[in-house]
Write a structure and sequence with these properties.
It contains 2 helices and 7 strands. It is of the alpha/beta class. A hairpin with a 5-residue loop joins strand 3 and strand 4.
Length: 123
């Protein structure tokens, strides 16, 4: 079994795909549209974004609206620099940061939590 796609619910698939495209540099799937947009990695993994009416953003770390999943991204270099770049692209930063020196919890424009982790954390 091989993972082929991860899909996030959101109110605006094209806008959320644009955020992650700028953040990751992945190519936008050519059939992306207002109801479903995707980004494709060279190895074939698709990160998808599907329109959901009345989407409710997760309320991390509070579980009033559960996060249901989060994505982690390795970043090269300094976490502060990566965080600043992502905040400039439209990410949010929750007050609660469980291990800020090791990773950062951010939220995408639709409210999904994601983590950035130093790629050299094992070195």
């Amino acid at each position: 079994m091989k993972l082929s796609a991860i899909t996030l619910d959101c109110p605006d698939p094209l806008a959320l795909a644009a955020f992650y495209q700028q953040a990751t540099g992945l190519e936008t799937h050519p059939e992306s549209n207002a109801d479903f947009a995707g980004l494709k990695r060279p190895d074939g993994l698709l990160i998808g974004f599907q329109r959901v009416a009345d989407h409710r953003a997760p309320s991390w770390p509070d579980q009033t609206v559960p996060q249901q999943l989060h994505i982690c991204f390795d970043v090269e270099g300094d976490l502060d620099e990566a965080e600043t770049r992502l905040l400039e692209l439209g990410a949010g930063k929750p007050d609660h940061q469980p291990h800020e020196g090791r990773w950062r919890v951010l939220t995408d424009p639709a409210g999904h939590p994601f983590c950035i982790v130093r790629a050299d954390r094992g070195a």
